[in-house]
UniProtKB/TrEMBL annotation:
InterPro entries: 4Fe4S_Fe-S-bd, 4Fe4S_Fe_S_CS, PSI_iron-sulfur_center. Pfam families: Fer4_7 (PF12838). Residues 1-28, 29-54 form the 4Fe-4S ferredoxin-type domain. It comes from Fusibacter ferrireducens. Keywords: 4Fe-4S, Iron, Iron-sulfur, Metal-binding. The keyword 4Fe-4S applies. It comes from the Bacteria. This is Ferredoxin. Its cofactor is [4Fe-4S] cluster. PROSITE patterns: 4FE4S_FER_1 (PS00198), 4FE4S_FER_2 (PS51379). SUPFAM superfamilies: 4Fe-4S ferredoxins. Ferredoxins are iron-sulfur proteins that transfer electrons in a wide variety of metabolic reactions.
Length: 54
């Protein structure tokens, strides 16, 4: 599963890339839910490398 770390700048680039809609805006950064399928699509588009494999 991927998680989004504190380097997230809330740009939203990752959310539309998720094929299972597991990414949403949190209070201060985006968050990835348990539906994550480890595809890495979010990590491929993030400008600050915030999504990381757990």
């Amino acid at each position: 599963m991927y998680v989004i770390n504190d380097s997230c700048i809330s740009c939203g680039a990752c959310e539309p890339e998720c094929p299972v809609n597991a990414i949403s805006a949190g209070d201060s950064i985006y968050v990835i839910s348990a539906e994550c399928i480890d595809c890495g699509a979010c990590a491929n588009v993030c400008p600050v490398d915030a999504p990381q494999a757990e």
